[in-house]
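We modelled each protein-ligand pair independently. The example shown here corresponds to the zinc ion entry; the chain sequence is given first, followed by the ligand as SMILES.
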Amino acid sequence: MTTKRKEVCMLCGKPSLKSICDVCAQRVQSEQLGKKTKEEKPKG
Ligand SMILES: [Zn+2]
């Protein structure tokens, strides 16, 4: 049994050296920006 720590993205669970992979990092960033600037929600 190997107790090796797997470094994966904590958001998508994909293997990544960082706790949050670039893809998710960008996603989170854009989401936060979008929330701050304006609410982009389609009506109806
Ligand atoms: Zn990720």
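The mean pLDDT is 85.
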